[in-house]
Amino acid sequence: MAVDLLQWHDGFHASLQIELQREPAHLEFYSEHELYKKALRVDTLIIKNSDDTPVQKNIGKIFRKYNLIEYKSPDDYLSINDFYKAYGYACLYQSNTESVHEVSMEDITISFVCSHYPRKMLKILKEERNIEVEQTEKGIYRLKNDPISMQILLINKLPPKENLWLSSLTRNLPMNRNTELLLREYQQHKESVLYQSAMELIMQANKKIMEEDCNMVCDVLKEIFADEWNKRELEMQKKESQIQQKESQIQQKESQIQQRELLLIEREENIKKKMEKKENRLNLLIQLLLHDNLMDDLKKAIEDRAYLEQMYQRYGL
Question: What is the model's pTM?
Answer without folding.
Answer: 0.67
